[in-house]
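Amino Acid Chain and Its Fold in Token Form
===========================================
Scope: a single protein chain, as residues and as a discrete description of its fold.
Amino acid sequence: labelled as such and written in the usual single-letter residue code.
Position: the record begins directly beneath this header, with no further notes in between.
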Amino acid sequence: MLPVVQGGASPERLRHCFVQTRLRFKSVEWAAEYFMGNTTRFVNGPPVPEVEVEEQKVQAPEGLQVIEALLYPASGNIPDRAELSRQVRLLLARSTYYRKYWSELPLGLPQIADALRLEVFRVTTLGISGFDAPLAGTTVEEARAALGSVAELVQLLDKQSLAAPFFRAADAELAGVRNLDGFDRLHFIRERCSPLSRALLQWQLREGISFLADNRLLRPQAATLFDADAFDPDAFVAGSELRSTPLKAQLGKRLFYDPVLSGDGKRSCASCHRPDKGFADGLARNSGLSGSRLRRNTPTLLNAALQPGYFYDLRATNLENQAAAVIRDPEEMHGNLARSLKSLLATPAYAELMGHAFPGVDVYTEQHLQHALAVYVRSLSTLSSRFDRYMRGEPGAVLGVEERKGFNLFLGKARCGTCHFLPLFNGTVPPSFQKIESEVLGVPDQKGGRRPDPDPGRYALTPVAPFLHAFKTTTVRNAARTAPYMHNGVFATLEEVIEFYDQGGGAGSGIEVPNQTLPAEPLRLTGEEQQQLIAFLSTLNDTLPWAPGRG
């Protein structure tokens, strides 16, 4: 591509070469992402600055997505050929690492099998949403290239070729797509991607290829992304001794509903995380103990374990630390865990529960209370919505026409799925599900306002420019139950949220947000399409088997 750039080729010629380059990358994406992720994030990472949090350093973006933005500007012309040439040279330099790595490292069959199934999941969650090629419009061609490369390798490894028909069916459906807006992604995922990933799992089992034993959120043995047990709520615990047990959850549940953990003995965790409100509270911002409003909206705890970071500013990396921070916060609970522990151990019922939950422990500590609460929150993981049951093919689970259209908008024109990733619908990035995203949306300080909310977000903890007003991408599962929305609760309804996104976030609404990560261009959703999105979101309401109380 570099000679074409340096030769002063026309924009059309440059874009053609770019598309061919992307397709070639997609043909090795399964290996590049799996074996050389650190290099690949600079080859095909998002076109936003990369922040090294611990060092508080900012790495300028580079790679294919940056080149795409240079080649597809809103004006239609290519304004900066010098920068385009520089980015292509950077891309070439990064690409040489692949050849060196793969020529020297023997690839084991378990790793290859794992990488191939993850590539199918990558196409399912990121590829067909246009996550990494939003401007070029090559979503379908790239999905074909990615799946085609997997098919070629599986054909060499699968002696019975039992997966081949599934690859052919997926390719044929993609080949029949005439325009992206008409692409029935729901059908493609349910009827093509999921059967394909099942076939690859069966091949791995039939050939006796072992599964990797690493601890991850998406279980290595998951047949599809929508299996009821595909995700492990204990994936982010620090050690095997911290894995959940029913008796720990029983203790944690009782603590959750007991105000004994608060400083004044009047507020429990359930005071703000109410089961009847989807484990949120239904308020824009709850009241602090002093009577003033808390800084931020109360998020749902449903499926909170299925993410690697907590609080809107991601300041906690596990649920144990999250629980302790809330209890100690002078406005939220103003509790003292050491004092509460002493009181609880003096209560026979609690002393008995502690003994059952942590057998063989001679000295209980504050960490045991934190852990019990965290285990209870992990027990609130449930991927049991009507949408999930439909994707699993369970009898009686159906989606209506408007709901199906809403899903296809979610993953297509409305671009919701490029931040709220399938199937968790939060910011935990598939298919590895090890990192969670934050975004700068330009949320106003009040509905219809022209000033950004003053909350600095992640910037308060890591003072680098990209993190100013950056907040965690939260789940839209159970969103129909957990109004109001955004970190400050500024929007009371889903209609208001969708209108905000449709306008292009804060920047599209006239707010000055120089570091906004949400595209400022309007989505141009019709009123009917906005209602279809809301209809789909209602299918993400999980079944809630938990009854309040101290049981």
